[in-house]
Amino acid sequence: MSLLELDDLSVTYTIEAGEVPAVRGVSLTLEAGAALGIAGESGSGKSTLAMALLRLLPRGARVGGRILLDGEDVLTMKWGRLRAVRWAQASIVFQGAQHGLNPVHRIGDQIAEPLLTHGLAGPEAARGRVAELLRQVGLPDWRARSYPHELSGGQRQRVMIAMALACSPRLIVADEPTTALDVMVQAQVLTLIKRLVAERGISLVMISHDLSVLADVCDRLAVMYAGRVVEHGPSREVYHAAAHPYSRALAAAFPTVGDPASRLAPKGLGGDPPDPMRLPGGCAFHPRCPVALEECSTLDVEPRPAGEGREAACVHVREKEQEAS
Ligand SMILES: Nc1ncnc2c1ncn2[C@@H]1O[C@H](COP(=O)(O)OP(=O)(O)OP(=O)(O)O)[C@@H](O)[C@H]1O
Question: Is the CB of residue 11 below 6 angstroms from any atom belonging to ligand 1?
Fold first, then answer.
């Protein structure tokens, strides 16, 4: 059984102007100890998907499908069970650490909080565990007494990772964990994440618009466009020899890990992502696709096999297979 299984997941927000289909029919799996990267431009639905995994979506977001964590559906879990799962089984690291840290509480108290709340440690043991966690993320023990504003962005992100590790979860969801950091610090935090995943056998879902960062850390990649996964498969193949024209454009936009240009919108990819409330007919990518055929404006193909353990939702994939046979 996979540690995490998304089965036809969809998320729709309702706003005054109408319905926003932010995630549309996503099916993905993650094996225990593996790392899955989710890539896509701004607005493709990555954060919505990350929030859905731990049922952290705002009220009014409608969620369909199933999210099985160790066989249990997160979407139908009772509240008490969900609270326990959120820290002890799966935890989340947000972008830029701006959501996660409380400015008026010391770092050590914030890391200790889930341990105390879930009865995993008494005050004395929690202090020891905090010191250990700080060391694991490369910070000295005395930082436990600091307030968030006394730390740099990279140090705050390390604290967020320590918090996520506190209850020894099996899964960490990291939403753009290094985007707000400068290139050097970004590389250090990525190295830390890779080490923790490898050493502790933690499973990781990492979200980024930068395919090079994900390819560096993750075993498998899923590329999202307009709420759909358009390609998924082993990182090397998706990054170096993408089957979907959108993944190719995204890979070309971020050629190296930590490229400063990766903060910018993908270059070489003309136009803007579509407004989810006004998705074009057929394949949502067709108006920007350099290899679109006439049929792409009416035909939205399902993901199809594009090699070993790999799928892509593009008419050209079928053509390649037919040529090969
Ligand atoms: N609370 C909300 N209410 C209404 N629409 C929302 C809400 N949150 C996100 N959306 C919309 O859902 C779509 C997906 O947004 P989401 O934040 O998941 O994308 P993303 O790929 O994570 O983008 P970014 O990289 O900019 O964070 C966007 O069109 C966005 O405007």
Answer: no
Written as six digits, the tokens of 118 are 């879930």
Instruction: Give 274 Cα–ligand 1 centroid separation in angstroms.
Output: 12
Residues 278 and 292: their CA atoms lie apart, in Å, by: 19
Percent of the chain topping pLDDT 90? 62
Q: Is 1 in the pocket of ligand 1 (CB under 6 A)?
A: no
Q: What is the pLDDT of residue 279?
A: 94
Structure tokens at 239: 């990054």
Determine whether the shortest distance from the Cβ of 48 to ligand 1 is under 6 A. yes
Q: Average pLDDT over the chain, rounded to whole?
A: 88
Check whether 72 has a pLDDT greater than 90: yes
Say yes or no: CB of residue 114 within 6 Å of ligand 1: no
User: Distance (Å, rounded) from C-alpha 298 to C-alpha 249?
Assistant: 22
Spatial contact of 227 and 276, defined as CB atoms under 8 Å apart: yes
d(CA 65, CA 290): 33
Predicted local confidence at residue 267, as pLDDT: 52
Asked if residue 170 is part of any domain, the answer here is no
C-alpha 282 – ligand 1 centre gap (Å):
22
State both tokens at 43: 């607005």
According to DSSP, residue 282 is labeled: S
ipTM over 0.90: yes
Q: What is the pLDDT of residue 182?
A: 80
Q: In this structure, what CATH number is given to the domain that contains residue 76?
A: 3.40.50.300
For 298, the domain range is 4-89+207-324
Helices and strands in the chain: count of H runs, count of E runs: 10, 12
